[in-house]
Design brief:
- The protein has 155 residues and is an alpha+beta fold.
- It has one helix and eleven strands.
- It has a domain of 93 residues: Rieske [2Fe-2S] iron-sulphur domain (Rieske Iron-sulfur Protein, 3-layer Sandwich).
- The chain is 14% helix and 30% strand.
């Protein structure tokens, strides 16, 4: 006796999975690989404000103690609830910037005298957050800070 059970007529399961995966890569991947725009951070203006034009911390809010920020070292802190890296560039000067690479959102880490994104190798100046090597095309989002006595505070 011959089995007359109908065989599936649609695409094979493997074909559907591969097609769905490709659609995800094209749809989401191209958006992530496009220009440096988006919510991954980065300030177009370089004005020393956060990505939204200013932090939610009031001017004069303590970010970190000077004693906890050695010269030329990027140390983690927060400003208005946002994660930042603070670098003391001199006895009375400091900078703060987002650790989020504006290219695709990787978190930068200090390597020697620069900040490096582990995703694609973009590098940024430790003393300014400016991009020094792509693929990122703009620097890290900066935050206005200053040294005020024993503390680094929001400006």
């Amino acid at each position: 006796m011959t089995d007359t059970t109908a065989l599936p007529t649609g695409p094979a399961r493997r074909t559907m999975i591969v097609t769905a995966g490709a659609a995800c890569l094209v749809g989401g991947g191209l958006a992530a690989c496009s220009s440096d725009s988006g919510s991954a951070g980065g300030s177009d203006t370089g004005t020393g404000a956060s990505a939204d034009g200013g932090s939610s911390a009031a001017a004069g809010s303590t970010v970190i103690a000077v004693a906890d920020a050695p010269l030329e070292k990027a140390v983690p802190a927060t400003i208005g609830g946002e994660e930042v890296l603070v670098t003391r560039t001199g006895d009375s000067t400091a900078v703060a910037y987002s650790p989020v690479c504006p290219h695709q959102g990787g978190h930068v880490a200090q390597q020697g005298t620069k900040l490096v994104c582990p995703l694609h190798g973009s590098t940024f100046a430790l003393d300014t957050g400016d991009v020094t090597q792509g693929p990122a095309t703009k620097g890290l989002t900066t935050f206005d800070v200053k040294v005020d006595g024993a503390n680094i505070v929001t400006a």
